[in-house]
Amino acid sequence: MQQTITVRTTKRREVLDITRQVMAVVTASKAKEGVCTVFARHATAALIINENADPGFRTDILSLLDKLIPEGVWEHDKVDDNAAAHLASTLLGTSQVIPLKDGRLLLGTWQGIALVELDGPREREIVVDVR
Length: 131
Ligand code: ZN
Hints:
By secondary structure, the protein is an alpha+beta fold. The protein has 3 helices and 8 strands; from the N terminus they run E-E-H-E-E-H-H-E-E-E-E. The protein has a 5-stranded antiparallel beta sheet with strand order 1-8-3-5-6, covered by helices on one side. A 3-stranded antiparallel beta sheet has the order 2-7-4, with helices on both faces. A hairpin with a 2-residue loop joins strand 5 and strand 6. The mean pLDDT is about 95. Bound molecules: zinc ion. Zinc ion binds next to loops.
């Protein structure tokens, strides 16, 4: 089963927990065991699995990207002025795979699935594929 989740972001950069929306697709699929793939159909967004209880960690992700990737110094900035967003998306990745057991995502206690918006606000499409 495959379903696309639409997420409307509201800031230029933000980290949004989408675990519940992904879980809803898994539940609707009635799959018991297998894998759930989540995939962001975008070049300036990313998907991560990590700490989802502490909002400070979401800020840390964006701070890390600031430290790693300076803005305005890349070739693509001459064309589109958003190279840092593309590079961050490349580093973090646009997909994640989570195993299923007993119809549930096998996430650890502190793990959640988050969309990282890197050049918003925009409407983002996340493909959730359960098999
Ligand atoms: Zn661009």
